[in-house]
Amino acid sequence: MYCQEISLNEKRKNENMLNDKPTVIVTGGAGYIGSHTIIELLTNTNYHVVSIDNYSNSSKSTYDRVKAITQKSVDFYEIDLCIPGDVEKVFGAYKNIIGVIHFAAFKSVSESVANPFKYYSNNINSQLNVLQACLKFNIRNFIFSSSCSVYGNINALPVSEKTVLNKAESPYAFTKQVGEEILKDYCLINKNLQSIALRYFNPVGAHISGLNGENPINKASNLVPIITQTAIGKLPMMEVCGNDYKTRDGSCIRDYIHVTDIAIAHINALNYLLENKQKSNFELFNLGTGNGVSVLEAIASFEKISGVKLNYKIGPRRPGDVEAIYSDTSFTEKILGWKAKFTLDEMMDSAWKWEKNCAEK
Ligand code: WQD
Q: How far apart are the C-alpha atoms of 31 and 175, rounded to whole Å?
């Protein structure tokens, strides 16, 4: 049973109820990182939360899981952010929006290589429309969901916020490079807009309760859901995409970080903006653990915590993959006062617990 969806005109009737309630708008709030961030917002703040999502890779049932964990509801709207009028309708229904967190985007590296236009059209247009709505309604704080994929293939690791970006290795990565530049330019001419771009490394795992996690309605393309789906038997086998890279075991290296660590970083970032601590009105922060982990090491961690021998084979390299990337986290720790807490084993354990819970449904 879904939470009761509140229609826009009903919202207008209740306008007085929300007039002065500080409100955070979360785009992509039914998605993986968005829903985990909403859980942390509802748990750690008194803000009213509004979610906008078109359910292209999620479902409304997410909001029921958020309510089961937090005992709180959010207002949610099924809106395509590529339609500017619809975006402004939602923004106009709330009088005290203190911040916008923009997650909504397509995010599969491999899919973006196969269908670049879908990624350019959706990811760029939706960001432009959300930013226009922020300007129209004079919203002061904007957090942009960026990605470590903006760095491209970098030899000198770990990467820091000062690392010069290389060529994006996929259209997905390019939409995040362009997204950061768009935001920077908006902030140059709109001094009232304070913004932060958070460069996520590889978000994995599930809420510690086992009641929320990755719930893509499309075929999973990311490593950890493919591991857990293989382990539970949804997939007969998985492939390691290449073991001939110049890394310690030949497989690609990433900086896997628990989705709840990512979510909590958004609370730190929002507070930093609300307390007007910014040096400039556009700042970038890495969200990683600082630990590089190979695909084979991630598989070994999963096998250790689950006791399941994973059925995998070595396959060809995947187009769009970078060889290795992991983060220098010192700037984010210093400025945002945030540090990742979950270990790789805990990430895998939470992902496996979620997969098993889903199988029982
Ligand atoms: C990780 C590694 C694959 C599947 C992700 C998100 C992107 C961004 C960055 C946040 C790669 C290998 C995968 C499989 C494999 N995050 N792999 N077999 O591509 O680093 O990008 O993190 O914004 O949105 O997509 O993550 O999990 O797809 O791949 O060997 O069946 O696992 O080759 O080396 P990626 P991923």
A: 18
Contact status, residue 112 vs residue 170, Cβ threshold 8 Å = yes
Q: Is the dihedral of CA 241, 246, 250, 256 positive or negative?
A: negative
CA proximity to 151, closest of 38, 73, 254, 1: 254
Task: For residue 284, report the phi and psi dihedrals to the nearest 5 degrees.
Answer: -120, 145
The catalytically annotated residue of 77, 94, 172, 272 is 172
Q: Which residue has the tokens 């393309």?
A: 221
pTM of the model: 0.94
Q: Give per-residue pLDDT as tens, 110-159.
A: 899 999 999 999 999 999 999 999 999 999 999 999 999 999 999 999 99
Q: How many CB atoms lie within 10 A of CB 326?
A: 24
Cis peptide, bond prior to residue 158, ω within 30 of zero: yes
Closest CA to 145 of 198, 95, 183: 198
Of the candidates 49, 52, 51, the residue with the CA atom closest to the CA atom of residue 24 = 49
What stretch of H or E contains 196? strand 194-200
Q: Can you read off the two tokens belonging to residue 248?
A: 């310690």
Question: N- to C-terminal Cα distance for the chain?
Answer: 14
Residue-level pLDDT at 215? 81
Pocket of ligand 1 (CB under 6 A): 107-109, 147-149, 200, 202-203, 221-223, 226, 238-241, 252, 254, 295, 318, 321
